[in-house]
Write a structure and sequence with these properties.
11 helices; 18% strand; Rossmann fold; eight-stranded mixed beta sheet
Amino acid sequence: MPFALVGGEPFHYEISGSGPALLLVSGLAGMASYWHPNLEALSQRFTVIRYDHRGTGQSVRTEGAYSIESLTDDLVGLLDYLGQARVMLLGHSTGGSIGQVLAARHPERVERMVLYATWATLCPQMALCMELRLKLLRAYGPEAYHRASTVFLYPPRFTCTEWQQVEEGASRAIAQSTTATILEARVKAVTSFDGVPYLPDIVCPTLVLVAQDDILTPPASSEALAREIANAVLQILPYGGHAVSQCDAENFQNAVISFLEH
């Protein structure tokens, strides 16, 4: 497995496909493997770059405080290591907040961007969900935290019809989990993030994409993003929850590819 050294610390990354560079930035779980259902379709059109965030997967597991801004600094270091001066970006949830900071602070590095199931302002619904997740983590540990995450990721129909896939995913998350203290630090990075000051400085064409039945980052959060980003368009998919890239991969990929190749 390839590793990049960012500030002397190892970050796991993977590159596949050919064509324009497309950076995939995962959500709170932070792992490159999140994008596996989409990799074949995207790699046919783009050079796809995936990586494990700090504190997750095979990347360096740093204890201490985390922030969206520091995670963005990690990403800039990774792009520098890989020699990628300018990329397109697809960010899911926490990855979308990282994308906001990157596009605002380093506009020359982002050609086009898809902000998928993400937010700039923590709405009451998302705040409640994150509070519940944090309480589960503190009371029962990482295993309960990861098992409960399926409730926030998937719509009920998907959980019922694809239960084996959901169960296997939860088991993998438990087996690969980082420490409880890092999980909590990453949750706090999410709940303390305020993206509003960054939005006026985002100048790249941006697709704001969300599923209608997303209970973690509801459509209202995406609507607010689309209003505040100058070159943004909003697209709401009818089904797929917070993980529509997995629950309805074909419609998700069609929306992303259509926008990036426009």
